[in-house]
Amino acid sequence: MFESSSSSRRTLLTASLGIAALLGAVLPAGCKPKRTRVPALCSFDGLSEEERESQVLLPITWLTLTSPTVDRQTMARSGSLRNACGQVLPPAFSQGFECPGFEPATQRIETDVIEESDIIVNAAGDDRMLLWAATDELASGEVEGAAALALWTDEAIEIHAAGMLRGYRQGARMKLHYIGGTPVVVLQGDRCDADGKCVAVAQVVPIVNRRLAELPLWESDVGCIGRAQFVLDRREERDLGNGITRRFVLTRSLELTDEGIFVTDLIRMDDQRNSTPDVDPTPFRKANARRPLLLDGDRLVLEDEDLWERSLRDHGQVTESAPE
Questions:
Q1: What are phi and psi of 183, to 5 degrees?
Q2: Distance CA 192, CA 172 (A)
Q3: How many CB atoms lie within 10 A of CB 184?
Q4: Which of 130, 213, 282, 309 is at 20 to 30 A from 178, Cα to Cα?
Q5: Which DSSP symbol is given to 3?
Q6: Under a CB-based contact definition with an 8 Å cutoff, are residues 104 and 91 in contact?
Q7: Backbone CA torsion sign across 158, 68, 113, 134
Q8: Is 159 helix (H, G, I), strand (E, B) or coil?
Q9: Tell me: the pLDDT tens digits for 21-74?
Q10: Could you give the residue ranges of the DSSP H alpha helices within the chain?
């Protein structure tokens, strides 16, 4: 379908160009930078006129473009996992991810085979595409593989950022957003158990020096709590010990605004009398919070305490005010 010339294959810019070169001059707050023309990390020409005009490629073409060590005939990988520009990808979390007690899953499912459906392609505006070759399934239920930010031009597809991405492949969709002018990939997918019960999970992966880089998530007064990965629906029950079971339901969303990204939580708490399980529960309390997700150097930061944990602690045990 196309080929990558040796001259365009090589890396054209060093990390010192930074994020400003990726998409243009950086503006204050969460505003989208104005994109200016910058050299690509690498590019792919040889596209047909129809492909350039439609900006549509076959899934197998997107897959082998994003993860070039996948052979399109055998659907097997030849050699080490590489990014779209042919550079060897280091293991996930091996560069700059420091979080005490955090141990990412590493065990791969050896019987997993690469398929055309492993490629995730989402438009990102201004002729840009977010690409993820989610080829390597892990025992944890997540999948990892090469990802890229691509730009359609009149003559070629240019790669302007690349790296490793790990997340949930089922129902996966990506968006490009900004925190303080820094581009970030927002990935949402479904985490499913053996019974087919699924819950949506969202995560935020900044693009640092034109490389997708998972950064540790810090919470005020707590420290590092792991990855910037958020379960969007949680449920839990607590027996209050007085004939009442309290049900906690969390509805969470990542709010993408001109100011940046906010983690918005709504918690509903209902009381179910154990002696009358068929009677509708009694509403006990509602709580909500809206916390900005900030980028502070080599880490992401959430201000204020997590509302879910606070609600379980404050209202998940017998108190004098608990109904009898």
A1: -70, 140
A2: 12
A3: 28
A4: 309
A5: B
A6: no
A7: negative
A8: strand
A9: 344 333 444 555 555 578 999 999 888 899 988 999 999 999 999 999 999 999
A10: 6-9, 18-23, 49-54, 59-66, 307-315
